[in-house]
Amino acid sequence: xxxxxxxxxxxxxxxxEWSEERSWGLGDISIPDPPVQRPAVLVPYLGARLSVxxxxxxxxxxxxxxxxxxxxxHLAPELKTTSVRVFEDPSIGQRPLVRWELLSTRDLSASxxxxxxxxxxxxxxxxxxxxxAHNPFWxxxxxxxxxxFVWLAGYRLFMKNQEGSSxxxxxxxxxxxxxxxxxxxxxxATVRHTSHAILxxxxxx
Length: 205
Known about the structure:
Elements: H1 8-22, E1 40-45, H2 54-67, E2 72-75, E3 84-86, E4 97-103, H3 126-134, H4 136-140, E5 149-151, E6 155-160, E7 166-176, E8 181-188, E9 196-198, E10 201-203
Parallel strand pairs: 2-8, 5-9
Antiparallel strand pairs: 1-4, 3-6, 4-10, 5-7, 6-7, 7-8
Helix pairs in contact: 2-3
Protein backbone atom coordinates (compact mmCIF):
# COMPACT_ATOMS: atom_id res chain seq x y z
CA UNK A 1 0.00 0.00 0.00
CA UNK A 2 1.51 3.29 -1.16
CA UNK A 3 0.20 6.44 0.47
CA UNK A 4 -0.91 9.34 -1.68
CA UNK A 5 -0.61 12.96 -0.60
CA UNK A 6 -2.12 16.07 -2.22
CA UNK A 7 0.16 18.43 -4.17
CA UNK A 8 2.37 20.67 -2.08
CA UNK A 9 0.55 23.86 -3.02
CA UNK A 10 -2.75 22.29 -1.92
CA UNK A 11 -1.28 21.36 1.45
CA UNK A 12 0.10 24.87 1.98
CA UNK A 13 -3.30 26.33 1.20
CA UNK A 14 -4.95 23.87 3.60
CA UNK A 15 -2.64 24.82 6.47
CA UNK A 16 -3.15 28.55 5.96
CA GLU A 17 -6.94 28.16 5.75
CA TRP A 18 -7.07 26.02 8.88
CA SER A 19 -4.78 28.43 10.70
CA GLU A 20 -7.04 31.37 9.94
CA GLU A 21 -10.20 29.44 10.75
CA ARG A 22 -8.96 28.05 14.07
CA SER A 23 -6.58 30.83 15.19
CA TRP A 24 -3.41 28.77 14.99
CA GLY A 25 -1.27 31.85 14.41
CA LEU A 26 0.66 30.41 11.46
CA GLY A 27 -0.16 33.11 8.92
CA ASP A 28 3.16 34.91 9.38
CA ILE A 29 5.32 31.80 9.31
CA SER A 30 7.41 31.26 6.19
CA ILE A 31 6.57 27.84 4.74
CA PRO A 32 9.36 26.32 2.62
CA ASP A 33 8.70 24.90 -0.81
CA PRO A 34 7.69 21.23 -0.82
CA PRO A 35 10.54 18.75 -1.25
CA VAL A 36 10.96 17.17 -4.66
CA GLN A 37 12.74 13.95 -3.72
CA ARG A 38 9.61 12.10 -2.58
CA PRO A 39 6.06 12.73 -1.29
CA ALA A 40 5.81 14.69 1.95
CA VAL A 41 3.17 15.86 4.42
CA LEU A 42 3.02 19.45 5.63
CA VAL A 43 2.63 19.28 9.41
CA PRO A 44 1.77 22.16 11.77
CA TYR A 45 3.08 22.08 15.32
CA LEU A 46 1.17 24.48 17.54
CA GLY A 47 2.43 26.34 20.57
CA ALA A 48 1.12 25.85 24.08
CA ARG A 49 -2.02 27.69 25.13
CA LEU A 50 -3.01 28.23 28.77
CA SER A 51 -2.65 24.84 30.50
CA VAL A 52 -2.61 22.84 27.25
CA UNK A 53 0.81 21.81 25.97
CA UNK A 54 1.77 22.36 22.37
CA UNK A 55 1.83 18.59 21.78
CA UNK A 56 -1.67 18.02 23.12
CA UNK A 57 -3.06 21.11 21.38
CA UNK A 58 -1.60 19.92 18.07
CA UNK A 59 -3.19 16.50 18.54
CA UNK A 60 -6.63 17.88 19.38
CA UNK A 61 -6.63 20.53 16.65
CA UNK A 62 -5.52 18.19 13.89
CA UNK A 63 -8.06 15.62 15.05
CA UNK A 64 -10.80 18.25 14.89
CA UNK A 65 -9.85 19.34 11.38
CA UNK A 66 -9.19 15.84 10.06
CA UNK A 67 -12.24 14.09 11.50
CA UNK A 68 -14.96 16.57 10.65
CA UNK A 69 -15.52 15.27 7.12
CA UNK A 70 -16.72 11.94 8.55
CA UNK A 71 -20.32 11.24 9.49
CA UNK A 72 -19.25 9.99 12.91
CA UNK A 73 -16.05 10.32 14.92
CA HIS A 74 -14.83 8.92 18.20
CA LEU A 75 -11.93 10.26 20.25
CA ALA A 76 -10.92 8.27 23.33
CA PRO A 77 -11.42 10.40 26.48
CA GLU A 78 -7.88 9.73 27.68
CA LEU A 79 -6.52 11.52 24.60
CA LYS A 80 -8.05 14.79 25.77
CA THR A 81 -5.87 14.97 28.88
CA THR A 82 -2.43 16.21 29.76
CA SER A 83 -1.28 12.62 30.30
CA VAL A 84 -0.49 12.46 26.58
CA ARG A 85 3.24 12.65 25.99
CA VAL A 86 5.13 12.83 22.74
CA PHE A 87 8.61 11.70 21.84
CA GLU A 88 9.82 15.06 20.61
CA ASP A 89 12.73 15.68 18.32
CA PRO A 90 14.92 18.71 19.06
CA SER A 91 13.37 20.99 16.43
CA ILE A 92 9.97 20.99 18.12
CA GLY A 93 9.54 23.40 21.02
CA GLN A 94 6.85 25.65 22.43
CA ARG A 95 6.76 27.97 19.44
CA PRO A 96 4.56 27.30 16.38
CA LEU A 97 6.29 25.43 13.60
CA VAL A 98 5.38 24.15 10.14
CA ARG A 99 7.54 21.60 8.37
CA TRP A 100 7.50 18.98 5.64
CA GLU A 101 7.86 15.35 6.72
CA LEU A 102 8.86 12.82 4.10
CA LEU A 103 6.86 9.64 3.67
CA SER A 104 8.89 6.46 3.89
CA THR A 105 9.67 4.80 0.57
CA ARG A 106 8.95 1.36 1.97
CA ASP A 107 5.54 -0.19 1.68
CA LEU A 108 3.22 0.35 4.64
CA SER A 109 2.59 -3.38 4.92
CA ALA A 110 6.26 -3.86 5.90
CA SER A 111 5.53 -2.56 9.40
CA UNK A 112 2.43 -4.67 10.03
CA UNK A 113 2.85 -6.70 13.21
CA UNK A 114 5.43 -4.43 14.86
CA UNK A 115 4.91 -3.44 18.49
CA UNK A 116 4.69 0.32 19.17
CA UNK A 117 6.89 -0.22 22.23
CA UNK A 118 9.76 -1.26 19.96
CA UNK A 119 9.71 1.95 17.93
CA UNK A 120 12.21 4.75 18.27
CA UNK A 121 11.57 8.22 19.62
CA UNK A 122 11.47 9.60 16.05
CA UNK A 123 8.30 7.67 15.25
CA UNK A 124 5.78 10.18 13.86
CA UNK A 125 2.76 11.42 15.68
CA UNK A 126 1.19 14.67 14.45
CA UNK A 127 2.20 13.85 10.86
CA UNK A 128 -0.33 11.02 10.77
CA UNK A 129 -3.18 13.30 11.86
CA UNK A 130 -2.01 15.91 9.37
CA UNK A 131 -2.10 13.27 6.63
CA UNK A 132 -5.67 12.41 7.61
CA ALA A 133 -6.62 16.09 7.43
CA HIS A 134 -5.01 16.56 4.03
CA ASN A 135 -6.32 13.26 2.63
CA PRO A 136 -9.35 11.77 4.46
CA PHE A 137 -9.79 9.30 1.58
CA TRP A 138 -6.74 7.45 2.91
CA UNK A 139 -8.54 6.80 6.19
CA UNK A 140 -11.72 5.80 4.36
CA UNK A 141 -9.71 3.16 2.51
CA UNK A 142 -8.62 1.48 5.77
CA UNK A 143 -9.95 -2.05 6.14
CA UNK A 144 -7.30 -3.63 8.38
CA UNK A 145 -6.25 -5.86 5.48
CA UNK A 146 -5.21 -4.24 2.22
CA UNK A 147 -4.92 -0.88 4.00
CA UNK A 148 -3.97 -1.38 7.66
CA PHE A 149 -5.05 0.70 10.62
CA VAL A 150 -2.16 2.74 12.02
CA TRP A 151 -0.67 3.44 15.42
CA LEU A 152 0.51 6.94 16.26
CA ALA A 153 3.45 5.44 18.08
CA GLY A 154 5.16 8.78 18.70
CA TYR A 155 2.44 9.59 21.25
CA ARG A 156 2.52 7.73 24.57
CA LEU A 157 0.15 7.68 27.52
CA PHE A 158 0.96 6.26 30.92
CA MET A 159 -2.28 5.25 32.61
CA LYS A 160 -2.95 3.66 35.99
CA ASN A 161 -5.45 0.86 36.42
CA GLN A 162 -7.66 0.20 39.45
CA GLU A 163 -4.84 -1.73 41.15
CA GLY A 164 -2.53 1.27 40.89
CA SER A 165 -0.07 -0.15 38.37
CA SER A 166 0.64 1.84 35.22
CA UNK A 167 0.62 0.80 31.57
CA UNK A 168 1.96 2.45 28.45
CA UNK A 169 -0.58 3.03 25.68
CA UNK A 170 -0.48 4.48 22.16
CA UNK A 171 -3.24 5.98 19.97
CA UNK A 172 -4.64 3.97 17.06
CA UNK A 173 -6.37 5.44 14.00
CA UNK A 174 -9.04 3.24 12.42
CA UNK A 175 -12.21 3.43 10.34
CA UNK A 176 -15.68 1.83 10.36
CA UNK A 177 -16.99 1.97 6.77
CA UNK A 178 -20.58 0.92 7.50
CA UNK A 179 -21.25 4.05 9.53
CA UNK A 180 -18.48 6.27 8.11
CA UNK A 181 -16.82 6.65 11.52
CA UNK A 182 -13.20 7.51 12.19
CA UNK A 183 -11.76 6.42 15.52
CA UNK A 184 -8.77 7.53 17.55
CA UNK A 185 -8.52 5.20 20.54
CA UNK A 186 -5.62 3.71 22.52
CA UNK A 187 -3.98 0.29 22.74
CA UNK A 188 -1.27 -1.16 24.95
CA ALA A 189 2.14 -0.35 23.49
CA THR A 190 3.23 -3.98 23.90
CA VAL A 191 0.61 -5.60 21.67
CA ARG A 192 0.93 -6.80 18.08
CA HIS A 193 -1.84 -6.82 15.48
CA THR A 194 -1.70 -8.14 11.95
CA SER A 195 -4.20 -5.44 10.94
CA HIS A 196 -2.12 -2.57 12.38
CA ALA A 197 0.93 -0.82 10.96
CA ILE A 198 3.37 1.93 11.94
CA LEU A 199 4.13 4.71 9.52
CA UNK A 200 7.67 6.03 9.09
CA UNK A 201 8.62 9.57 8.11
CA UNK A 202 11.82 11.50 7.53
CA UNK A 203 12.25 15.16 8.37
CA UNK A 204 13.21 17.90 5.97
CA UNK A 205 12.47 21.38 7.30
